[in-house]
Amino acid sequence: QRHSTPDTTVPTLSPAEQNRKLTIRIHRELDAIGISPKAIGYEYLTEAIIIATNEPVPNLSRAIASKHAGKTPASVERAMQNAITAVINYERGVPTLTEFIYHYANRFRNEL
Question: Which of 8, 9, 80, 110 has its CA 20 to 30 A from that of 86?
């Protein structure tokens, strides 16, 4: 009689699959806190959190603006700030844009 050991290998996801799953997870979180998917900053926030989760960069707004023709880092930052400002509870304090992004990036990095 042969005894086989169960296969305990965990399938690894390709980077594209990881980003897709992370995007879904980020959208779920942004939706839960009330950020409108129609807000221009919604997609920029998603991109920023993915970048910060995978490999933090010094200037997220510049990195995102470089991917979008005609966008400046200032306009990207303003759009992200406007998206989160609409849902902030001022009694609890207002996080900076960087604090907001890295809060989620750290959380998702710990889940991966």
Answer: 110
The one-letter amino acid code at 9 reads T
Taking the C-alpha atoms of residue 61 and residue 59, their distance in angstroms, rounded to an integer, is 6
| HEC secondary structure over the chain | CCCCCCCCCCCCCCHHHHHHHHHHHHHHHHHHCCCCCCCHHHHHHHHHHHHHHHCCCCCHHHHHHCCCCCCCHHHHHHHHHHHHHCCCCCCCCCCCHHHHHHHHHHHHHHHC
Rounded to two decimals, the pTM is 0.82
